[in-house]
Design a protein that fits this description.
- 2% of the residues lie in helices and 45% in strands.
- It has 484 residues and is an all-beta fold.
- It folds into four domains: 79 residues, Immunoglobulins (Immunoglobulin-like, Sandwich); 129 residues, Sandwich (Jelly Rolls); 102 residues, Sandwich (Jelly Rolls), CATH 2.60.120; 120 residues, Immunoglobulins (Immunoglobulin-like).
- The longest helix is centred in the N-terminal third of the chain and has 5 residues.
- Keywords: Signal.
Length: 484
Amino acid sequence: MRLTAWLCTLVHSALVIPALAAPPAFDSLFPAGGQIGTKVEAKAVGKGLEKEGFLAWSSSPQVVVLGGDKPMKFFLNIAKEAVPGPCLIRLYNESDASPPRIVEVGKFEELTEKEPNDTLADASASPAKMNVTFNGVLEKAGDVDTYAIQAKQGKSIRLELHGYALGSPMDPAMRLLNEKGVEIAAGHDTHNLDPRIEYTPAADVTLYIQLFSFAHPPAADVSFKGSANHVYRLTVTDEPKPAVAVNEPKTLTLPATVNGCISKNGEEDAYTFTAKKGDDLQLRVRAQSQHNSELDAALRIEDSKGKVLQQADDSEKEVLDPALRWKVPSDGEYKLIVTDRFHHGSAEHGYELTVAAFKPSLTATLDTHAYRLEAGKSVEVKLNVKTSGTYSGKIKAQAVNLPAGFTSESVDVPAKGGDVKLTLKATPEAAASQAPFAVEITTSAPDAVETVKATYTIPFTEPRGDLLIMTDDHPWLTLVAKKP
């Protein structure tokens, strides 16, 4: 996801920051978001945050982070113009910067859990109206959070939990109960570890939602887990889902883009197309990566006799959408088939299929999310460049948007990609600073001239599905004043 960097400086008048304070550990923020057009008080959790002197940066200009009157206390000012969705928050001081954490902007009313809320009796005292987001924490081992919600006859409701997707160390599960406490629906993993439930009540009714969590990373026991970092957001709505236009023609005319859906178990969507010998094609399915789909897509190409010529499942680690490059062996008609790897299907198994002429592309991955150096010294920025296809012109890597007092020369990238090192140098007179910067990879003629930003992967332990944000292209740079 491409994000627009925005530096939100916040300075409390009484802040005193030690010159070489320990880098902050930013383990969680509660609540992890808020409604459009509101100001939300939030508490940060992490070793060292009890000290004063931390500032915050937000990746969104519509989410401004302000400091509170106490350490670990912050305010999220969410603009009326904000768009629902995730952004990143980073805490930093004069010494270093924390890894970023994900917060989410919502469009519904937001409620914060009130303990005790372990049982139906606890929740029944204050049932919530529909179209709401609950903010909660499974704060100790064995914790179960329960909410009551008023539902209308015949109106389908959708419950979607974001816990793992926020970066919380949890494998959550969810149950939907009727007024007698009988389970009527349940959810566990979807495209990641977070659950989702859809249900249509037969009458006006008060329903109960129970949440609990198993360990992530997995543990030997299966008991319920909890901590101050088991932060989640639960959205409950009866608003109809935005309609996705599904266009599944039997025959494709290339280049083509098709929106489809594997609507039932065992279904396969088949498309025929004609191609000429030597055509170099790029075929890609986007489902989980861009459309929050439950489809674990698989893609295969068959000839007119049904022989499988090429197939693909996951395109790379932790990316469950397939992509392949295929050179047509002979003139003729071919069949392209999209299916679910585990033969599942539903209205939630939508996808976008594209077939077009292949063109070279590249990606660049940074070795870490933040860099630190002292005035008068240098630091290496390592990145790995992967190319798909052949480049004839020169490829350059360069650090850009550097603060005053920094220099960095561009370096050549091998035509086939590989590991590259950039050196950032700070002059002895450079003033202390903290800010995001960027690393750009640029191609040149005779190839199409394009610029790609290098990204780092959002730090997380043992990924098991996608987070709301997986990568970011704004690494952090801390310059510490030269020691006397």
